[in-house]
Amino acid sequence: MAYLRTALFSGTGAALAAMTAITVLSRIEGKGAARPVNATSHVLWGPKEATRDEIDLAHTGTGLGINVGSAFFWGAIFALAAPRPASTPRRSLIARAFGTTLLAAVVDYAVMPKRLRPGWELVLQARSVAAALAAMGTGLAAGGLVAREMDAPQKLVSTLAFDPVKSSD
């Protein structure tokens, strides 16, 4: 259960943080908030469609689905790298979250062919892509830390639980 909780919480954190980051960074760069989300749909529609600012199901829905799915994928990878979060020190959990993000960046931008890359690089400056990846790492770490804290009370409750059968001996 700890693995699944960590994967779900970390994936959720990564998705929320990365999506927030790319939309805010796009606005800071003077572009539409939906543009980097739409850019991810280049996987299906081609690079010419990456600069769309309009929100629509074909581009925004596809981009959102791919980005969120990717965040949950990396959340699962992170959960594998951080087994039993209740026993993992915070520093180690945070380091593993950013290590997972570094792996994601290498896979997405050095291993994958251009057509399968996130597409953020098609519409955002390199520093904004880096900031969005840092946000993703922060989201992974935050989700992992929440999962860690949720496992800790269960450990405490099981330690303090009163067992009448054992105490009657």
What is the fold's blueprint, element by element?
Blueprint: H1 2-28, H2 35-39, H3 42-45, H4 57-81, H5 90-111, H6 120-123, H7 126-160, H8 164-167
Helix pairs in contact: 1-4, 1-7, 4-5, 5-7
How would you characterize this protein structure?
The mean pLDDT is 89. It contains 8 helices and no strands. The chain has helices at 2-28, 35-39, 42-45, 57-81, 90-111, 120-123, 126-160, 164-167. It is elongated and about 50 Å long. The longest helix has 35 residues, at 126-160. The protein is mainly α. Helices cover 75% and strands 0% of the residues. The chain has one domain (2-167). α1 crosses α4 (57-81) and α1 packs antiparallel against α7. Residues 1-17 form the signal peptide. The chain crosses the membrane at residues 64-81, 93-112, 124-147. Keywords: Membrane, Signal, Transmembrane, Transmembrane helix.
